């Protein structure tokens, strides 16, 4: 009879509702690989997943059979060729608008205001922000930015977020250095009348899976309709997109 683990494994703590425990545990072994890892030994895999070594070995054998992992000559485990094949299929089928647009639509539905996805474009003094995606507010009175429009990096909540989280600007001497430090500390930016006197904005950063900055999610509205309570919806949208873009 198998021993009952005194400490729940990572897979048990994060089990998929209605899923299969064995699959969750096998996937936890794949998820144990982190940036910079080329290969991991059994002891380290067991430690990171909180699985018994005997359990981990059985699951590793299945993952090796599926070519998701490969066992090296020194006994350590590395990601297998099937990972590369699946990544290539994913990259070929990936469409950013299918990820971003549903989140923006939900943000507009929750707030009644306009939502956009801004990315940095260009370098140095020529850098601007591009409105890559946009969903308009149902209100007749709103700002009229469209997808494809270029906006400044040093004005508006979206530009401020892209600037604040730009590693190249963190140590730079700029009149807005204190503002950018505040934005990084709180994780979002709210401004009224920064780009245009009649427009208010709430923005939060979106990050790639490796932690680098991907974009800014921005909610805009006329200044007279500004409501700080919308910040939680913007933050939720940014979290939903982070790691997915």
Description:
The structure is a single chain. The chain has 245 residues and is α+β, with helices and mostly antiparallel strands. It contains ten helices and eight strands. Strands 5-4-3-8-7-6 form a six-stranded antiparallel beta sheet, sandwiched between helices. α2 (21-31) crosses α4 (53-65) and α7 crosses α9. The longest helix has 16 residues, at 96-111. The chain is elongated. The two termini are 45 Å apart. The mean pLDDT is 91.
Q: What is the H-and-E element order?
A: HHHHEEHHEEEHHHEEEH
What count of helical segments does DSSP give?
A: 10
- Arithmetic mean pLDDT: 91
How large, in whole angstroms, is the Cα Rg?
A: 23 Å
Question: Outline, from the CA principal axes?
Answer: elongated
Q: First CA to last CA: what distance?
A: 45 Å
Topology of helices and strands:
Elements: H1 10-13, H2 21-31, H3 42-49, H4 53-65, E1 69-71, E2 77-79, H5 81-93, H6 96-111, E3 114-121, E4 128-135, E5 150-151, H7 157-164, H8 167-170, H9 177-186, E6 189-192, E7 199-207, E8 213-222, H10 231-241
Helix pairs in contact: 2-4, 6-10, 7-9
